[in-house]
Amino acid sequence: MSELKATVLVRLYPTPEQAATLQAHCQEYISTINVLVQALDSDMLPEDASTKDFTAALPSAVKNQALRDARSVLKRSVDLEVIPLLRKPICQWNNQNWHSDGDTLLIPVYQDGQVGQIAIRWSNVEPVGKPGVLRIKRKRGKWMADLAYTLPELEPTPAQGIMGVDLGVKVPAVVHVIGKGNRFFGNGREQRAKRRQFYARRTKRQQAKKVRAVRKSQSKEHRWMRDVNHKLSCQIVSHAQRQGVGIIRLERLAGIRRRTARTSRGAKARKNLIATWTFHQLASFIAYKAERAGIAVEWVDPAHTSQICPACFHRNKATDRCYVCAECGWTGHRDTVGAINNSRRTGRRGHSAGAAVA
Fold it and tell me: Which residue, 37, 123, 134, 329, has fewest beta-carbon neighbours within 10 Å?
């Protein structure tokens, strides 16, 4: 049985002494990775190096995790054609070296020349699966922990319904359940207005050369988009469950930004609608939440899905949001056409297949 991954973000509440220990520990971790990457690249360390081949003020298990991360960074540097220098202090512990006891997190750290365990208060977390890697970082002055969990994939539900999903800018999501009709999700007008506000604020701050304010605005916009996508994906998957859907069919999103850029009117539309909306994120949220609910996900070819007539299969170009078939006279909303055609196409099954965004 294949497995799904989930990450839970948790707030930590360390004492001032614990915060200082975490800061020193995370800085040592990142510095160790940077040194190891350089050593592995220059063959100062053998490929089969172990924790015995280098020293660091870290617990043995954390040293081993740093070595794995260094190898991963070196592998990615081949594609980047440059060895990156990590700057943000973080630290990771594998699932055998961190434990939780209600509202307390127990982790080993290196302090005062020896390894000891510290107990940090955190928001109580209900386990959602088999625990994996724990990553601690400082974000906007707050200590946060990313908890990775492995979730066993549920068996597909006995429901036989099939639902097609069409994603877009003007209408965030349209779904069609075969034999049960269509439904629209999200308010494209409100979302576009919100993005224009972010863009206008960012433009003023860029003109005033307020770099930190621009970055803060970008971070806020990303959090807002992520929240919207989470809510939309929850609504779509809940609707699928109520309708007895066993398979959700989503478009492979390759090239969606280029296609939308060609159809959007004006520079303002291209800047605010194309560059700032995360189509792939919404599709991914729908996919993993559907699989958690036991609903299979298939990725289908999006070619001409909004042009082919659902009744006679003749290809027509829609006029604005209205679709009229010149062959048989069938009429309907353009995005419902895409959802209907997606529901009828067979595709590749799996969470990530074909979901890359160009």
Answer: 329
Residue 26: the pLDDT is 92
Confidence of residue 152 (pLDDT cuts 50, 70, 90): low
- Per the structure, the complete domain to which residue 145 belongs is given by 3-152
Q: In this predicted structure, what is the pLDDT of residue 351?
A: 46
Say which residue the tokens 């090239």 belong to: 255
Instruction: Give the model's confidence band at 236: pLDDT under 50 very low, under 70 low, under 90 confident, else very high.
Output: very high
pTM of the model: 0.59
Residue 133 inside a domain? The answer is yes
Residue owning tokens 């970055």: 215
Tens digit of each residue's pLDDT (9 = 90 or more) over 31-67: 999 999 999 888 888 888 888 889 998 988 889 889 9
Residue 51 is assigned to a structural domain of this protein: yes
Domain boundary pick from 109, 128, 152: 152
Residues 113 and 259 in one domain: no
Q: Averaged over 316-335, what is the pLDDT?
A: 82
Distance CA 299, CA 173 (A): 16
3-state secondary structure string across the chain: CCEEEEEEEEEEECCHHHHHHHHHHHHHHHHHHHHHHHHHHCCCCCCCCCHHHCCCCCCHHHHHHHHHHHHHHHHHHHHHCCCCCCCCCEEEECCCCCEEECCEEEEEEEECCEEEEEEEEECCCCCCCEEEEEEEEEECCEEEEEEEEEEECCCCCCCCEEEEEEECCCCCEEEEECCCEEEEECCHHHHHHHHHHHHHHHHHHHHCCCHHHHHHHHHHHHHHHHHHHHHHHHHHHHHHHHCCEEEEEEECCCCHHHHHHHHCCHHHHHHHHHCCCCHHHHHHHHHHHHHHCCCEEEEECCCCCCCECCCCCCECCCECCEEECCCCCCEEEHHHHHHHHHHHCCCEECCCCCCCCC
Residues 82 and 173 in one domain: no
Average pLDDT, rounded, for the chain:
82
Q: Domain count of the chain? A: 2
Task: Report CA Rg, the chain.
Answer: 24
Beta-ladder partners of 348: 299
Within 10 A of 236 (CB to CB), how many other CB atoms are there?
26
